[in-house]
Amino acid sequence: MTTAAWWHCFSGIAGDMALASLVDAGADIDEVVAGLRQLPVDGWRLQADRTTKSGLAATRLNIEVDNAHNGTARPWSAVRQIIEDATGLADRVRQRSLTVFSGLAAAEARLHDVPLDDVHFHEVGGVDAILDIVGTCLALEALDVGEVHSSPVALGTGTVRSQHGLLPNPAPAVVELLAGAPVYGTSHGLELTTPTGAALLAGLAVSFGPLPPMKVTGSGYGAGTADLPGVANVVQVVIGDLEPLAPVPVDRFEDLVVVETNVDDVTGEVLAHTVASLLGAGAVDAWLVPMVAKKGRPGYVVCALCAPLLVADLTRVLAVETGTLGVRHHSVQRWAAARRTVSVEVEGVPVRVKAGPYRAKAEYDDCARAAVELGLPVAEVARRAESAATGRLLAPVE
């Protein structure tokens, strides 16, 4: 059973509000703080307090940062190093945190027309923003959240002030990060959704829409600092187990990008590692295509499919891993069929099975692990898992 978190962003979302909502839903604040202490960043204190917004009880997060440790513009490489150096973080926490900041860096690179490695975070490079993002990922881990979902996102109007000067509201980074997600404007002249909040949604949410079918196990409310007329300035989070018998979301058409390069001087072992690295960096899919290169040399086209926000990151992976001197990318539209993943047991060993409208398939890594534990062929484990999942997934297509 997959545990999911759904953020209801009817008053927008900010990093501190997201973290506060998860604490309000039951994430242990002491566990979150202990995880944040793994970061090589000093001079901060974090406290969660109770408050009310429009009569609704909520948790408010207070982060105090010494002046000597905050307000510094940090390059993306420095923020990445801070997270990578926190060796005590769980792998999923580290990967989620890097994914969020990676998307933010890509958005900033496009907005300011600079290379990715030259991006400097201003407000979102401060200690408080780093704590908000990593802390949210720690709180998700504390609640064992496997999937993040979100409602359509409310945005404010007017202008906001930043270190770059006066900017439109919603801020350019917010618009860039939420491209493709359902958003709507309000008459509130406040920054309802901040770049940090938008980056969390862009990096973590697997869908935007109504509350997905689930068995609710908890909920929480994270308060913003301002009071809004006629509406509670909070973000709501609902925690629950995704309901395997319920219909999955409808099919989607997605605007994605194919990133690719030709190589004719790279070994098979390096190519296999490159494909794994592309997937680890957030690619939706990655593959190799045999080809005949110039002068009759055998070679490969190394390809990856990704969201537009990750083009710069995957370009860097291709360059670093293969040594290529050129990378192409082009936009594509992908039809994504409705699917559901459930966990079944084969002689007591859990195996995940994914199904779309036309077939069900057991996850290979799970089957391989179970095959070793049970002394069975991988194909037999897969057959048993897929048989056990019958009737628990999508209804047959008529």
Protein described:
The protein is built from eleven helices and 20 strands. With 398 residues, the protein is α+β, with helices and mostly antiparallel strands. The chain folds into three domains: 240 residues, no CATH class; 85 residues, Transcriptional regulatory protein pf0864 domain like (Alpha-Beta Plaits), CATH 3.30.70; 50 residues, no CATH class. The strands form seven sheets. It has a five-stranded mixed beta sheet. Strands 15-16-14-17 form a four-stranded antiparallel beta sheet, with helices on one face. Strand 19 and strand 20 form a beta hairpin. Helix 8 runs antiparallel to helix 9 and helix 10 crosses helix 11.
What's the gist of this structure?
With about 400 residues, the chain is α+β, with helices and mostly antiparallel strands. It has helices at about 15-25, 30-35, 75-85, 90-110, 125-140, 170-175, 195-205, 270-280, 310-320, 365-375, 380-390; strands at about 5-10, 45-55, 55-65, 75, 120, 145-150, 155, 160, 165-170, 185, 205-210, 215-225, 235-240, 250-265, 285-290, 300-305, 330-335, 340-345, 350-355, 360.
Mean pLDDT: 88
Helix content: 25-40%
Q: What order do the strands of the largest sheet run in, or round the barrel if closed?
A: 11-6-1-13-12
- Radius of gyration, rounded? 22 Å
What is the total domain count?
A: 3
What structural class do you assign from the helix and strand content? Answer: alpha+beta
- Regions with little confidence, pLDDT below 50 for 5+ residues: 245-249, 394-398
Strand content: 25-35%
Number of strands: 20
Distance between the termini: 27 Å
* Large-scale geometry: globular
Major beta-sheet overview: 5 strands, mixed
